[in-house]
Amino acid sequence: MGFLFNNAGFFLYRHCTCLKFCMLSKEDIFKEYLDSKKLKFTVERQKILERVFANYKHFEADELLIDLRQNKLKISKATIYRTLSLLVKCGLLREVIFGERHTHYEPVFGQDHHDHLVCNNCGKIIEFVNHRIERLQDEVCKKNDFEPQSHRLQIQGLCAVCRIKEFEAVQIKD
Amino acid sequence: MGFLFNNAGFFLYRHCTCLKFCMLSKEDIFKEYLDSKKLKFTVERQKILERVFANYKHFEADELLIDLRQNKLKISKATIYRTLSLLVKCGLLREVIFGERHTHYEPVFGQDHHDHLVCNNCGKIIEFVNHRIERLQDEVCKKNDFEPQSHRLQIQGLCAVCRIKEFEAVQIKD
DNA sequence: ATGGGTGCAAATGCTTTGCAAGTAC
DNA sequence: GTACTTGCAAAGCATTTGCACCCAT
Questions:
Q1: Strand D lies under 7 A from the Cβ of residue B83
Q2: Please, which positions of strand C sit below 7 A from a protein CB?
Q3: pLDDT per residue as tens, chain A (174 positions)
Q4: In Å, how far is A72's CA from the nearest CA of chain B?
Q5: Between the CA of residue B111 and those of A94, A163, B21, B31, what are the distances in Å?
Q6: Which nucleotides of strand D are protein-proximal, with an atom < 7 A from a CB?
Q7: Which residues lie below 8 Å from residue B77, measured CB to CB, with a gap of 6+?
């Protein structure tokens, strides 16, 4: 199991992200990463990992804190931030920014790389997957001699419900 | 000139962003917007607009402050933030987030909607335009009954120079 | 034993806000 | 004249950090 983060496995890891997701559990991936950096797999780190993947959805640091409290786990904010940063570094979490000033995270489940439609009015988030966009992105990278590591695509606008609401509001005004 | 931000022009404005860029100067667009909100076109707002469009590139609030100082304009940070927010609202500026905790802005020149490659190592930013990606985005929006207003696409990774550097570093290690 | 981990509280750094005085229309 | 604006300083807020004590290996 030691191949993922040692020198020999470096490029393998970097260029074939899905490999580790097929072969190892989240916990193993995290342990592997910690090992490679001579860091320890503590109870706090384990519990945070567990809660992060217990819910299949976006969250922010504060929400994770509340979730931990509700599960009777007392972990300080500092540790939460420190651990989230590690989980991002080892690829188990992705940072997503929805326009607010605090960071949102989403668990990475390996296969489905998706992007987001964010409603400017009600805040609803619609996820979508589009492989053709991803392919075009790779093309752009090649053209610019750039090695992609991650990306964010986020389209802001109005969802169906809010568009109708706004349309009605304008009609009444007129 | 009053048609852009009054009720009747609302949809026109919303659905045909480039129209105003073809017909009006930046200052007119800004004045128009301020008028529509019963806000005033002050010297501070005028000067900030001027400096923002004097340089064709990304900047952050602090850099604008320095630029203003260098041009012997003494405008407080509070006013800068307040004005930047107005410029974003009326579509003359776009917020771009490059992964740091502070907001970056870029002036909008109407025609060329571009996206960014951001080097994780040296921070270099490469702009690119890809109409096929944009078209696919519109498709996604239609499929999800979503009305797009703006979007951000940002690919993070390693630029050519840094990729070579990192490759060499690994070779030496081995 | 020891190098890393944790919680706490204080620090940071960008951004926002309350307020009194000033200014555009 | 009356809102709206500005600058200043203080407040906010998410995140980071210093430090003393703790714990896994």
A1: yes
A2: 3-9, 13-18, 23-25
A3: 343 443 333 333 444 444 445 556 888 999 999 999 999 999 999 999 999 998 768 899 999 999 999 999 999 999 999 999 999 988 899 888 666 778 888 888 765 678 889 887 777 888 899 999 999 999 999 999 999 988 888 888 889 988 887 666 555 544
A4: 31
A5: 32, 26, 8, 21
A6: 3-9, 13-18, 24-25
A7: B61, B65
